[in-house]
Amino acid sequence: MTAKNNRIFQSKEDFLTQYRDACETFAGKGFEELNDQERYYVLASLVASKAKNVRAAARPEGKEVYYFSLEFLIGPLLDNYLLNFGVRDIVEEGCNDLGTPLDRLLSQEVDPGLGNGGLGRLAACFMDSMAALGINGNGNGMRYRYGLFKQVIKEGRQVEKMDNWLEHGFPWETRKNESAVIVQFGGNVVRHEENGRYWFTQEGGDLVKAVPYDVPIVGYGGKTVNNLRLWSAEPAEENFDLDAFNAGDYAKAMKFRSDVEAISQILYPNDSGEHGRILRLKQEYLFVSAGLQTILRTYEKKFGPKWEDLGKHVAIHTNDTHPAMCGPELMRILVDDKGVDFDLAFKIAQETISYTNHTVMPEALEKWPINTFRALLPRTYMFIEEIDRRYRESFPHDRDNWQDLLAQTAILWDGQVRMANLSVIFSHSVNGVSALHTGILEAETLHGFYELTPEKFNNKTNGISHRRFLGNANPSYARLISNTIGDGWLSDANELKKLEPYADDASFLEEFEKAKLENKRRLAKYIADTTGVELDTSMVFDVQVKRFHAYKRQLLNVFKILDLYNRIISDSSFQPRPTAFVFSGKAAQSYTFAKEVIRLINSVAEVVNSDARVNDKIRVAFVPNFAVSSAQLIYPAAEISEQISWAGSEASGTSNMKLMMNGAITLGTYDGANVEICKLVGEDNIKIFGLRTEEVENLRASGKYWAWDAYNADRPRLGRIVDELTDGTLAHLSGNFESIRDELMVNNDHDLVLKDFYSYVSAWEELTASYADRKAWNRSAVLNTARSGYFSSDRTIREYANDIWHIGD
Ligand SMILES: CCc1ccc([C@H](C)CC(=O)N[C@@H]2O[C@H](CO)[C@@H](O)[C@H](O)[C@H]2O)cc1
Question: Which residues carry this modification: N6-(pyridoxal phosphate)lysine (predicted)?
Fold first, then answer.
């Protein structure tokens, strides 16, 4: 896999020379004296320094994009950067010569958990694609001291461990002390008046020093190296409590330090509800204010105080509502520090800022109590208040439903700051992340805004870094593809289309099957090592890997497995295709239901895997601590991709795209991006089941859906599965599952698990039955890869650049 570029290593020999020198320079010892962690650290530091040189050398003209996200799930970088610099083969051979296989060094790399799931990984894929496309993409996020918790499974239960990811240091980052800025919290606003001119200052409060750490983002081809800036909070010298210190009250003196450092201490592990913590609001403000201060400083250096042209040279994209304060904070800096007129400042903000919504889950839409917000951010809040006042004042009364529209769209409502409304009002563009999702935003979630400003709304269907999730994650298949159609697909994923004819090529299909088997064996070994569960690689590998959430319906998947279990035992003629069910994913700490589903899966695994009546037909494995690195082991081995959320709940999904690209066949509902996957791959190469969005809405609206009806209508089968939650069948490992049963039967099955059960299980049976025809199955699998090019984040970013950021206009 060679990238046509200015390679950082000209040959294996050149690499070995530079690497040996680097061992001396970075570790002061020869390669032979170093352990694998140190050898990895030196190699990463060498590649990082090369990347920084490339960045320093070339700084292309053109518009700067600043991608604000509170999460960047970047994953391990070395393997990806070696591919992007086009030197992976050279380094692999060199390491073999050194007697230390590259894979052994790569396995030393930390997997920074600076994100929860979909939103965070999307941001990282976007960074990879902006660099690959030569766009000046600047990431702006937080450098959490502790990332997303490490998940350990004890007696089937999720146990959270602190993620001390910086324990061995992080070779990719550079602390930029000289670029530190001060961010102010609290205090109060003072109005100043002098010969008719008046201005405001924010006095008192706490001053926090935001210190940036920069991480290079190497683009494929090695020509563009962009920057990911991650902010850390530290006490501003100015207000260290010296008196307390001198009075020997160190706790008080240190309290300020720990209060400040707490701001960037940890990632909030929720990927939907349960927000409203003041520390989270401080995080959201700190990286926004610090990011904007440095953006305007850089801009002013380049263009002078021509603030009215900011939107021509700078695009600020906000990843969900977490950076929503970009609007009012940009106005505060422009008005208070740069003397720009209020109306012009608002105009500049709207021209510059754009917003992506990633969920329609009501509990995930951020709202902050006005009192909390105003107390912490008194001056920034004044801009929100004034914009809201002017919005109401100038609201068009020419519509008969104007009161309702105002109620839907006003920022301040019911004592709360509605962050989604703030994001829309301060943005020139609002996009959803799949065609179905954007449609729901326009028709429901943000309908008021769509009626008022339809021109702002557009769809940008998500994408993934195909270089990482196929090129790096699946070397055997990637090599087969490159040997067959060349490696142009690494820079242009649409080239994967050239694989179509090979879907009918027996020798190619044979090689494909070999690669898939190699990946299944690799995963089976990883699962055996981490869980002790032995998976037979002749079984179908059926995979559901994502955050645990009721709407993603991991419970429906478990109900299917229990159904198979009961039927295999009760009906000897029932011979389902032997299948290994692989689950992985974390649940937010405080999300009890999700944690109970994890416990249920491990209990079902214990029962099924140890039951000789069934364990040659079905096996279950829960892979702990789902992260980017484990995901890269799971996707290549998968044959069935479970995407079974109820229709209208999953904004897009991205694991569906990664699994499709790696030749897994989707078993899914007509939800999120599954709809577009179905349209592109063709109905013969996917298995769709379940209610459609409109059927879900009608059923809910009818008020006629009762879980007990479903239960009583089929006591022997579905009823029995529900009973097994509490009748002891699954209680051996850690007890029964009353809370899950209650969620289903008492709270009336909000996620329609019982409703979609039958169409789901029969869809699964039809799909696995077709597995026997290996030629047909592999043909379909290869067609999934061949038709997955559209789901590269390169395509997504090209659309953002053209339609939202207006790059190259
Ligand atoms: C305030 C807590 C919180 C934190 C994160 C979030 C994210 C928006 C949740 C998230 O990751 N959403 C996922 O975003 C992916 C990328 O667009 C989509 O593919 C998934 O469908 C969506 O659930 C909501 C609320």
Answer: 658
Any ligand 1 atom below 6 A from CB of 272: yes
Establish whether this prediction's ipTM goes over 0.90.
yes
Looking from the CA of residue 364, the nearest atom of ligand 1 is 25
Q: Whose CA is nearest to atom 9 of ligand 1?
A: 271
Can you give the pLDDT at residue 269? 87
Measured in whole angstroms, how far is the alpha carbon of residue 229 from the centre of its chain? 17
- Nearest CA to 549 out of 585, 599, 582 is that of 585
Between the CA of 787 and the centroid of ligand 1 the distance, in Å, is: 26
CA of 318 to the centre of ligand 1 (A): 13
118 Cα: distance to centroid of ligand 1 (angstroms): 6
Residue 570 is encoded by which pair of tokens? 């009760």
C-alpha 80 to ligand 1 mean position (Å):
25
Cα 671 to ligand 1 centre (Å):
15
Arithmetic mean of pLDDT over the chain: 96
Whole-number pLDDT of residue 243? 81
Q: Which residue from 148, 272, 283, 590 has its CB within 8 A of the most atoms of ligand 1, so it is best to mutate?
A: 272
Mean pLDDT for 596-622 is: 98
Ligand 1 contacts CB of residue 117 (under 6 A): yes
DSSP E strands in 601-715: the ranges are 618-623, 640-643, 665-668, 687-688
Q: How confident is the model at residue 1 (pLDDT cuts 50, 70, 90)?
A: very low
pLDDT value at position 357? Answer: 98
The angle subtended at Cα 470 by Cα 469 and Cα 476, nearest 5°, is: 135
356 close to 317: Cβ distance less than 8 angstroms? yes
pLDDT tens digits, 743-762: 999 999 999 999 999 999 99
- Given the DSSP bridges, would you call strands 665-668 and 640-643 parallel, antiparallel or unpaired? parallel
The preferred substitution site among 69, 73, 119 for testing ligand 1, maximizing ligand atoms within 8 Å of CB, is 119
The domain covering 517-784 belongs, at the CATH homologous superfamily level, to Glycogen Phosphorylase B; (3.40.50.2000)
Whole-model pTM: value is 0.98
Order of all β-strands in the sheet with 412-413: 367-369, 416-418, 412-413
Q: What is the pLDDT of residues 316-370, one digit of tens each?
A: 999 999 999 999 999 999 999 999 999 999 999 999 999 999 999 999 999 999 9
Asked whether 366 lines ligand 1 (CB < 6 A), one says yes
Model pLDDT, residue 760:
98
State the closest ligand 1 atom to the C-alpha of 320, by its place in the atom list counted from 1. Answer: 8
Catalytic residues: 358, 546-547, 552, 654, 658
- Backbone angles phi and psi of 640, in degrees to 5: -120, 130
Strand locations in 80-149, DSSP E? 136-142
Q: How many residues can be counted in the chain?
A: 809
Helices (H) and strands (E) in the chain, counts: 33, 23
Task: Find out whether the beta carbon of 71 lies less than 6 Å from any atom of ligand 1.
Answer: no
Each domain of the chain, given as residue ranges in start order, spans 517-784
User: Quick one: which H or E segment has residue 228?
Assistant: strand 225-235
Q: What is the pLDDT of residues 491-522, one digit of tens each?
A: 999 999 999 999 999 999 999 999 999 999 99
Please give the distance, rounded to the nearest whole angstrom, from the Cα atom of residue 652 to the centre of ligand 1: 9
**Parallel, antiparallel or unpaired: strands 353-356 and 429-432:** parallel
Contact (Cβ atoms closer than 8 angstroms) between residue 43 and residue 84: no
Tokens for 427, please give them: 């943005």
Q: Is 73 in the pocket of ligand 1 (CB under 6 A)?
A: no
Among residues 742, 290, 397, the alpha carbon closest in space to that of 550 is found at 742
pLDDT at 242: 75
